[in-house]
Amino acid sequence: MKRKTLTQYLVEQQRKEQAVSAEVRLLIEIVARACKAIGHAVSKGALGGVLGSLESENVQGEVQKKLDVLSNEILLEANEWGGHLAAMASEEMETIHLIPNRYPKGEHLLLFDPLDGSSNIDVNVSIGTIFSVLHAPHHASGREVDEDDFLQAGATQVAAGYAVYGPQTMLVLTVGSGVVGFTLDREMGSWVLTEEDIRIPEETTEFAINMSNMRHWEPPVKRYIGDCLAGKTGPLGKDYNMRWIASMVADVHRILTRGGIFMYPRDERPSGKAGKLRLMYEANPMSMIVEQAGGAAIDGTHRILDVQPNALHQRIGVILGSKQEVERVRQYHLDAASQEA
Ligand SMILES: O=P(O)(O)OC[C@H]1O[C@](O)(COP(=O)(O)O)[C@@H](O)[C@@H]1O
Ligand SMILES: [Mg+2]
Ligand SMILES: [Mg+2]
Asked: What GO biological process terms are annotated to this protein in UniProt (predicted)?
């Protein structure tokens, strides 16, 4: 059977459903090409001299790995001259990156986590790239975009996706009409459509959370995980399995493939009050993908895609995955709030 490539899929979307404009189609292709280059660097490992850390820290105060910086540079360089963007923002850059005046500019904004799961780079475990596309709101006025233009709720995203660099290199994408997955054909160098309509099963018996943070969790999270651990004879009446890869891309990819619930909740530590994951380039794109695949994504009580951002590097608690299970956790949060009131 002849399979579609990413380009063919996007052209079809443009023609059939008008779900993507020509500009968005071309910018997704550029991001996908950059992901191919990042995947290539990742696969070289020690032979490419890409493992290990640098002396530098990013805006979040995290030590940068060589691949964090390299992946950021690959994405910036690839997208600068494409003509489809007004500006970019990244986990690895304190402020936004305007498209230089020498290049043509477009009507969109691109945000990315260039390398997600940095702690897994040196141990040869799956890592990835996450991206989100927004419309530049004041493009028509002709003025230079600024950081405030990026602060749009996730529900306004035009497209979102991630690449996962694992046993296979895959690209998972939504342009707002379902979720599709492409596998990189290394011989041909092309992204080939291998998952046509990804759907997350509504129910699950698998949870993903970093259990070492248990003592810091808020009561509803403690209650939920306690109920999962109680198994068949507990209040949920079923035995649960647990997985934690510590790369959001890889954990979310598993959930898109076979269901489950992923939790990086806010917690009671001063550093955990706002959550760990970043709203604009981790939580929002993943939430759009998960919702488009029939799942749900909340911060505890609110839908993540409705949260109005107030800072580029804002953090948020994340609970996403199979719809019924996410709703259960939301209910536990509502119960706790009503008991407090
Ligand atoms: O080591 P922890 O706290 O379990 O963290 C794992 C989480 O941190 C992250 O690695 C953060 O991503 P970065 O590597 O982009 O900083 C998520 O992918 C993942 O869910
Ligand atoms: Mg990340
Ligand atoms: Mg990162």
From this structure: fructose 1,6-bisphosphate metabolic process; fructose 6-phosphate metabolic process; fructose metabolic process; gluconeogenesis; sucrose biosynthetic process
* Residue of 69, 131, 264, 269 with the most ligand 1 atoms within 8 Å of its CB, for mutation: 264
Amino acid at the residue 218: E
**pLDDT in the model for residue 50:** 79
Our answer on whether the CB atom of 210 is closer than 6 Å to any ligand 1 atom is: yes
**ipTM score assigned to the predicted complex:** 0.98
Which strands make up the sheet holding 241-242, listed edge to edge? 241-242, 206-208, 261-264, 318-321, 296-298
Annotated binding residues for Mg(2+): 91, 113, 115-116, 282
**Based on the domain organization, do 319 and 244 belong to the same domain?**
yes
Q: Which domain holds residue 63?
A: 6-195
- Nearest-atom index, ligand 1, CA of 60: 16
Q: In this predicted structure, what is the pLDDT of residue 16?
A: 82
> What whole-number distance in Å separates Cα of residue 120 and Cα of residue 137?
37
**Contact 275 CB / ligand 1 (< 6 Å):** no
